[in-house]
Amino acid sequence: MAASNGNGETQTKKYTAKDFASDQDVRWCPGCGDYSILAQVQRILPELDTPKEKHVFISGIGCSSRFPYYMNAYGVHGIHGRAPAIASGVKTANPDLTVWVASGDGDALSIGGNHLIHSLRRNIGLKILMFNNRIYGLTKGQYSPTSELGKKTKSTPFGTIDYPFNPVQIALGAEGTFVARCLDRDPKHLQQVLLRAARHKGTAFIEIYQNCNVFNDGAFLLLTEKDTKPDNVLYLEHAKPLVFGKENDKGVRVNGFKPEIVSLKDGKYTVSDLLVYDETSFEMATVLATFSDRAGFPTPIGVFFQTERKSYEEMMTEQIQAVTKKRGEGDLDKLLKSGNTWVVSAN
Amino acid sequence: MSKTIETLDDVVIRFAGDSGDGMQLTGTQFTNTTALVGNDLSTLPDYPAEIRAPAGTLFGVSSFQLHFSSWDILTPGDHPDVLVAMNPAALKVHLKDLKKGGVIVANIDSFDDKNLGLAGFEANPLKDDSLASYQVIEVPITKLTLNALQGSGLSQKEMVRCKNFFALGLMYWMYSRPLEPTEEWIKQKFGKEPPIADANGKALKAGYYYGESTEAFGARFEVKPAQLKPGLYRNITGNEAVALGVVAAAQKAKIPLYYASYPITPASEILHNLSGYKNYNVKTYQAEDEIAAAGAAVGAAYAGNLAVTGTSGPGAALKSETISLAIMLELPLVIVDVQRGGPSTGLPTKTEQSDLMFVIYGRHGEAPAVVIAASTPADCFHMAFEAARLAVKYMTPVYLLTDGYLGNGSEPWLVPAAKDLPEIPVHFRTDPENFHPYARNENNVRPWALPGTPGLEHRIGGLEKANITGNVSYDPDNHDFMVHLRAEKVKGIEKDIPLQEVYGEQSGDLLVVSWGGTFGSVRSTVERMRKNGYKISHAHLRYLNPFPRNLGDVLKKFKTIFVPEINLGQLAKLLKAEFFVPVVQFNKVRGLPIRSAELEQAIKDALGGVK
Questions:
Q1: Are A206 and A182 in contact (CB under 8 A)?
Q2: CA-nearest residue of chain B to A20?
Q3: Which pTM was predicted?
Q4: DSSP-assigned letter for residue B341
């Protein structure tokens, strides 16, 4: 069966999730949240009409970074923190490829923080999946830059004295053009966001809360368990009012600049008083991004922000085309003989 | 009244002034004009790391030395014949290098109490007899420039800034150079600011006519054109040559060039040059840091480009881990290290050869990389081309070592015709039949299989690979096998590089062995000593890892191996370790090229007074 991918290329085969699974045994710990992320990525790729050979998965170091080995696509398991740098080289060298980055909270935010913010700033067409389990797993249990203050870990037996930072705020601050947060245990939602990220031009950043059942089990329990999830998770949906709660009985309104959680039960407020989410609003995104750090506020899940901006590789191609048009295709002889030249004649 | 013109074989001029005085520009203009006249030449720019150090201070002095001749020269010269000193600090810093009896052209307008004090002169040296052993020509350069520019409509400050063109004009007169090339350049450079263009042109002419009309100058000189091989020449710096070399290589390989770099002195010009060549299938990427530049280059290599990253010592240190990855991935990558004084920030604008051990061994694990080194500014073109050829053919990182002297220094380059450059064959794997990412050809080289190729989907990475399949393998014997295989692959390149040549007799008492940017000073010293009857030979290495396969035999034919280096003996150590030969070292680490006279004395000492 043939399908077009919109670039005039024809995909000769309709894929299934299985087509994207490599022949390597998956070696994450049983019960790890990474399995779900892998499965959702494999599930959405057939929807994309992109030939299998055009997908490239680049990773750094850490549990998450084993991801490329399990994908039947092209892949590079790189070095710690540098996946966005390597991926930027791949994407700018060949913009025709769909380039994914699999990374973790240590890889992307600690050792690789610089590369992450600069790829976001440049808006290079990378799909960055940041698995956030708030712990170093592969090195067996030290705190990460997203571990909560005071957390006791192998390297902090008396509790951390490091303030964590908030990946969504970093991505927004770094001029990210697609910034989202997902849960490993909400596969349907994760699939939807992954699809949107894949189709986004420029850098797409998804923070995925991922449970490390060995070193930080239950870190996101409140957000994933049936009885606690409704009161603690706020799904962001574009053009919809911000409602949450077991009985859809709570909402978010703003009082001036200040967000408030209000009850829809006591008759004081109705849905029409609530903030209607606009994912193209940078201002709204920056306010909602703070919720996960505020006591008494639900954790927003979904697309915080999306905007259209020319990608780096588009501008790079355009600039090369413009210069080539103006100066003509480069002639090596002309280049070698340019500058300050003179002729020495035989005599 | 025109004066008699005396003919000289060669002249060394040094222009020196404040870093804001435009000495680099003046020197470059003199160089370009001299090239057009047909002299052979060699240059040595020397400038402070500070962009505008406080005026008048010793550390703010910037200089440009130029050696030009009617014969084939190899070095910018040890000792200038002429020193143009725009202020007392310039005189103070450079006087010790001037030849006894040499000429000092001093801008007396700047020899006031303040500047004399800043330079640390207790008395005005122009007024006492401290300069008695030199010919001092006092010229009120500032005043004469101001006079020439009266009515130009420029401010006093703007007029004063034209004084370097006055000095340049004066030197043009003194050495019988035409004004036109610089006049033409001024027109182009300042075309948008006609008053400035006009003023610089006027200052240039005023300097020239001052020489002609004043009695201050005893004589005028000329240096006849050198007998260079016929052909089209251009004056080229090492950094320009590297840029052209990698563009040429990419064109000959018929693949795009990808240059990823982070600005660093003295390598940034490579990035500047390449970023202007966008219509030559060149992509440049200014990364957020050195590591990212190396990472992006690895990514571009994976995607099928000729990937190059350029840097200097501190940046090379940062790239080290990524180069190890490229060695594990077995991807082609060219790393250019324009060496500078170290350690740490060291002497960013000065030259040194102290990264040799670092680029050969400075990686974690058993991580062999090819290392080659350019010997002159123009040779940077050929070695950059060669680095690319080896990288692509052997799917390996290749380090190209140049240095601050080669990078900024210049010489005439006989421009090759594009058609005479060899093709660089590149084969991208497309056939899925029996494809294995780590299968190997007769040279132990794995296939270059690009993402986007149907049917070749595969994963590579930094974890140890099983040979052939490329799957992750923790097997002890496989690791041992792969460590040996990677080493053998690089060692095997010795079959594909030229044999080591020896200048002079092929055996004897003393062989001088040098590498990299010291070629000029070493070869000219050996040449001169041979003319004076010393039976010595010279081997200059351009291939450092692997060494040329006959190097051991070459060394064993000499009683003494003499190794001069601008480091503490890094090549010397390698030769001792590899070939068990005793080595006499000569090490001067001043941030400047080796002085020929010092080298000659050291060689004589090593010979023990025997010719």
A1: yes
A2: B457
A3: 0.93
A4: B
Determine how many CB atoms are found less than 10 A away from the CB of residue B165: 27
Whether residue B541 contacts residue B565, with contact meaning beta carbons closer than 8 Å, is answered with: no
Q: Is the pLDDT of residue A347 over 70?
A: no
Please check whether the domain covering B508-607 is classified as CATH 3.40.50.920.
yes
CB pairs under 8 A between A and B: 208
The reported pLDDT for the residue numbered A8 is 45
Q: Which residues contact B52 (CB under 8 A, 6 or more apart)?
A: B19, B20, B60
Nearest to A86 among B236, B283, B299 (CB): B299
Q: How far is B494 from chain A (nearest CA, A)?
A: 30
What is the pLDDT averaged over residues B457-474? 96
Percent of chain A having pLDDT more than 90? 93
Report the residue of B184, B302, B305 to disrupt the A interface, i.e. the one with the largest count of A CBs within 10 Å. Answer: B302
d(CA A104, CA A148) in angstroms, rounded, equals 16
CA distance A39 to chain B (A): 18
| Domain ranges, ordered by start, for chain B | 5-223, 234-420, 508-607
Give the phi and the psi of residue B204 in degrees, each rounded to 5. Answer: -60, -50
Query: Distance between CA B219 and CA A230 in Å, rounded?
Result: 96
Question: What's the pLDDT score for residue B550?
Answer: 98
Arithmetic mean of pLDDT, B562-573: 98
Cα-based distances in Å from A142 to A29, A104, B229:
17, 14, 67
Domain B234-420: which topology?
Answer: Rossmann fold (3.40.50)
Task: Tell me whether B380 touches chain A (CB under 8 Å).
Answer: no
Phi-psi region of A94 (alpha: psi -120 to 50; beta: other; left: phi over 0): beta
Residues of A in contact with B459 (CB under 8 A): 22, 24, 57, 68-69, 71, 74-77
Quote the CA–CA distance of A58 and B461 in Å, as a whole number: 9
**CA separation (Å) from B558 to B498, B524, B544, B561, B569?**
21, 20, 20, 7, 19
A53 → closest Cβ in B247, B258, B457: B457
> What's the pLDDT band for A339 if we cut at 50, 70, 90?
confident
* Cα A246 to the center of its chain, rounded Å: 29
CATH level 3 topology of A3-219+308-314 = Rossmann fold (3.40.50)
Domain boundaries, chain A: 3-219+308-314
With both helix axes pointing from N to C terminus, report the angle between B194-213 and B163-174 in degrees, rounded to the nearest 10. Answer: 40
- Determine the topology of domain B5-223 in CATH: Pyruvate-ferredoxin Oxidoreductase; domain 3 (3.40.920)
CB atoms within 10 A of CB B424: 21
DSSP letter at A107 equals I
Which pLDDT score, from 0 to 100, does residue B150 have?
A: 93
Residues making up chain A, counted from first to last: 347
**pLDDT in the model for residue B280:** 98
From CA B508, how far away is CA B504, in angstroms rounded?
10
| A170-211 per-position pLDDT tens digit | 999 999 999 999 999 999 999 999 999 999 999 999 999 999
Identity at A337, one-letter amino acid code: K
Task: Say whether B508-607 and B234-420 share the same fold.
Answer: yes
Amino acid at the residue A189? H
* pLDDT in the model for residue A165: 94
CA nearest to B300, candidates B332, B252, B347, B277:
B332
- Sign of the Cα torsion B463, B467, B471, B473 reads negative
Whether the predicted pLDDT of A5 surpasses 60:
no
Query: What are the DSSP calls for B462-507, one per residue?
Result: SS-B-TBT--B---HHHHHHHHHHHHHHHHGGGGGSPPPP-BS-SS
Neighbours of A53 (CB within 10 A): 17
- Rounded CA-CA distance B493/B545 in Å is 9
CA distance A249 to A307: 31
Q: Kindly state the tokens that stand for A197.
A: 């990220």
Of B293, B294, B459, the CB nearest to A77: B459
